[in-house]
Amino acid sequence: MEEKKAPSGRWKTVVILLLICVIIAIFPLAFLKDSEFGGADGAAEEAITQIDPEYEAWASPVLEPPGGETESLLFCLQAAVGSGIFFYCFGVLRERHRKEKNA
Questions:
Q1: Residues 6+ apart with CB under 8 A from 22
Q2: pLDDT digits (tens, 9 = 90+) for 39-80
Q3: Which stretches are transmembrane (predicted)?
Q4: pTM of the predicted model as reported, rounded to 2 decimal places
Q5: Is 22 exposed, middle or buried, given 0-12, 13-18 or 19+ CB atoms closer than 10 A?
């Protein structure tokens, strides 16, 4: 039977980094109110209302973020999580292929 080794200090680093990520994601949601951000969504909305001032969106948002900067944060967070999952799976498949090739 194999002996179990004591966990290295790396898990502490991982936990601390994950907590920092959570704080970075939650801070704007909790403390920033009425932030304004002139992004692409704002420009598109302005162009639509110039063409048709009575236009109303056909779908209403389930969760309304407190401001444009928070909306951008959530979009970036979604992109980061998605790419993290994608490249993690890519790495697992690559490593599996490499181990099968060496075996």
A1: none
A2: 666 677 788 888 888 887 777 667 666 666 777 777 888 899
A3: 12-32, 72-93
A4: 0.45
A5: exposed
> For the chain, which residues make up each domain, given as ranges?
10-102
pLDDT for position 34? 67
CA triple 59-64-65, angle to 5 deg: 140
69 by Cβ neighbours in 10 Å (0-12 / 13-18 / 19+) ranks as middle
Assess contact for 70 and 35: CB atoms under 8 A: yes
> 67: exposed, middle or buried (C-beta count within 10 Å: 0-12, 13-18, 19+)?
middle
